[in-house]
Automatic annotation (TrEMBL):
DUMP binds at Q109, W110, I111, R112, E120, Y121, S122, A123, R124, R196, R223. GO terms for molecular function: flavin adenine dinucleotide binding; NADPH binding; thymidylate synthase (FAD) activity; thymidylate synthase activity. Homotetramer. This is Flavin-dependent thymidylate synthase. InterPro entries: Thymidylate_synthase_ThyX (IPR003669), Thymidylate_synthase_ThyX_sf (IPR036098). It comes from Roseivivax isoporae LMG 25204. It catalyses: dUMP + (6R)-5,10-methylene-5,6,7,8-tetrahydrofolate + NADPH + H(+) = dTMP + (6S)-5,6,7,8-tetrahydrofolate + NADP(+). Belongs to the thymidylate synthase ThyX family. Pathway: Pyrimidine metabolism; dTTP biosynthesis.
Length: 301
């Protein structure tokens, strides 16, 4: 199960005791606070705490007092200007602390984003649960023939059944041995910090992850992208739902300029101008490599 009974009880207790505050709050984020959004088969994302809102971004940009005197429309326009011109500092004024439960191999991808504060569940001190990520059949895919780090067609028939069986059996066998090694029933028992090395990369871990909005949006731009690995992308999409409610002006600008936008090189812009003038431009006459040309065409077609 994504949440243990103890975790659910803690969440229920926290939500049952709202407290008055003088600090800026986001109504959209308050609705998410403490609640766990399920991800994959045993994972979740939940908001533990946050600071700031759309107004905090504008306040920092204007270096003003309180919530400022500008209209809401001016605030949204300013945020779009900041996003459009890559002014990152005002977005750093907002922060969020997330509690995430995720497979270890996803965590190892995630931790490459080194711009956050992280504290992970320790398998040196505690015993990991018997919880493993097993892909759904429609996400069990072959190696891509065109992308060395991507997936191709979905596995079918006996091959798919065999792979799923091996994943489940190997995970259970590894955990059986893990339990046997740390057991102190009739033996000394291997240290937990050593026994954990036998567990597979699809075992679940948990961490607290605190990050400012600027670096969070950078994470989402990469990990919510269609080319990102499915297992980390679904976590990014769950976080997108949270950010959309937390800072709606900033998220709309992010969708427009980052998720839905494209960055063109000087060479690509020159090609686009030539094409708008009616010139037929090919990869050979563009000055771009085959890869650059393919990406350029994907952006404008």
């Amino acid at each position: 199960m994504p949440l243990s009974p103890e975790q659910q009880a803690e969440i229920d207790a926290l939500r049952a005791e709202p407290r008055p505050t003088l600090r800026a709050v986001s109504d959209g984020m308050e609705a998410h606070l403490y609640r766990a959004a399920p991800v994959l088969d045993h994972g979740f994302v939940r908001v533990v705490d946050y600071m700031g809102d759309d107004a905090a971004i504008c306040q920092a940009a204007r270096v003003s007092y309180g919530r400022g005197t500008k209209s809401v429309s001016n605030d949204e326009g300013l945020i779009r200007y900041l996003m459009r011109h890559w002014h990152s500092t005002p977005f750093e004024m907002c922060e969020v602390k997330l509690h995430v439960k995720l497979p270890v191999f996803v965590a190892r991808q995630w931790i490459r984003h080194r711009t956050a504060n992280v504290n992970e569940y320790s398998a040196r001190y505690s015993i990991l649960d018997r919880e493993f990520y097993i892909p759904a059949p429609d996400t069990l895919a072959a190696q891509s023939t065109t992308n060395n780090q991507g997936r191709g067609a979905v596995l079918e028939g006996e091959e798919a059944a065999r792979v799923l069986r091996w994943l489940r059996d190997d995970a259970d066998r590894a955990y059986d041995h893990y339990e046997a090694m740390i057991s102190q029933d009739g033996q000394q028992g291997l240290a937990r910090e050593l026994a954990r090395m036998n567990l597979p990369a699809n075992v679940y871990t948990q961490w607290y992850w605190k990050v400012d909005l600027h670096n969070l949006l950078h994470f989402l731009r990469l990990r919510a992208d269609a080319h990102a690995q499915y297992e980390i992308r679904v976590y990014a999409e769950a976080i997108c739902d949270i950010v959309r409610d937390w800072v709606p002006f900033a998220y709309r600008a992010f969708e427009d300029y980052r998720l839905g936008g494209a960055t063109l090189s000087a060479t690509a812009l020159d090609c686009l101008r030539r094409m708008l003038k009616g010139e037929e431009v090919t990869q050979e006459t563009s000055g771009m490599s085959k890869g650059e040309w393919r990406e350029f065409r994907a952006a404008i077609d």
